[in-house]
Model the fold of this input.
Amino acid sequence: MTKRDPRVDEYIANAADFARPILEHLRVLVHRTCPAVEETVKWRMPSFDYHGLMCGMAAFKQHCTFSFWKERLVVGDAADAGAHGQFGRIQRLQDLPSDKVLCGYIKKAMQLNESGTSTPRARSSPRPPPATPDDLAAALKKNKKAAGTFAAFSASCKREYVEWITEAKREDTRAKRVATAVEWMAEGKQRNWKYMNC
Done:
């Protein structure tokens, strides 16, 4: 038996006029295809759970979205639509794939959740180490201890200092940050040392 959430009713009722028929259609389609689905609200948007989070929908000022949690495994290359879900900006019912296609996707999502298949995480290549600004490099040359600490830092630790220095809007602020950075590095401290559990 389907479990409907009154918060989803309220969400749809408060959506823009163009969005209501789209959201109702998607809701009916999900329930018809997956009778055991349970509605919930996650991230303030209607979501559908079946052995875990399966899919969700949202309405904005000028468009709706519909997306699957395990997007790449469900819809393949169509998952590259970005923040607009796998089906782009949906402004009318005709912007959706056919009911047959959507039902196929919902069934695929159900099978993936039933089997406990997890979404493969894309491996990201590490960011290259940041370029050391000239003023920081010059200050480090004058303090061997600080230079040694900076050289031993990971790329992310170096990046924290470099970004902090280069984000300064005024020259005097930047100069103060360079001096503070060198002082802290001479003591072996990372940029956010105050917040680290020691």
